Amino acid sequence: MEIFYSELCLIGGAVEDNVDRLIAYGAENIELMLDGTGWNDFPRRMEELVSALRARKVGYSVHVPVWDINLTCGNAHVRDAVLETYRQSIVLASKLDAKHVVLHTGWCSDPHFSKDEGRARAREAMLALHDFNAGYGQNLLVENVGTNATSLFTEDQFVEFLNDFPEDFGYLVDVGHAFINGWNLDTLFARLGKRLRALHIHNNDGIKDRHAPLAEGNMDWNAILDAAMSPGGKLNLVLEYNIGTELERLREGKAFLEARCGAKR
After folding, report:
1. Superfamily of structural domain 2-261
2. How far is CA 234 from each of CA 3, 99, 150, 199, 241, rounded to the nearest angstrom?
3. pTM score > 0.90 for this model?
């Protein structure tokens, strides 16, 4: 297992500064969150960013942009633009030798829209990304997103989504999202099996998606981590704390995971 700090908590800053600040608080792997001013128009700055990031000598994963972006919305022009942004995220990941790429499937923004249609669009988009990824070989991970009202998936539908997908696709379970939606974390990880490759780790009260530090919420981390480790695969553990969280909380979370899971340093 390896521990990552998500860049989410520093969205809005310059990318290089964000990475340096996370390293100063003990980051050895960083999940780049391609949102905010620092990542604006990142495909045009690709080589500049890659050169600066590779010089930092830490490991990376890449999270596609998510703000104001819906891969399965009702407008084809928007869907095409989002899909191209995901493709460019895969290109960036390949240049950084990233350990995984986090993909959002989209969501249902209004109850008048069809979740069945959204899932079909998500499947079509993911298969297109598989074809694109043939030239890059990235570890593509589908994340559970949204509340019960907006998520395209129930727990069962999420588990089944990748059943016939190629092996370059796996799952990243956001445990905070699963918790507020009432998913059974005791059995979810085992059901995902070898497709489970990473976790987004943060806490909440079971109602609001707070992305709080591990000690600030109602989640039972001993039970969750026991269940997550039981399938036996290697997991990347990403501390994904909310914007503005004190960086010392990341250091504390890392220390807890290292002590609890024997995570690779």
Report:
1. Divalent-metal-dependent TIM barrel enzymes (3.20.20.150)
2. 11, 12, 30, 11, 22
3. yes
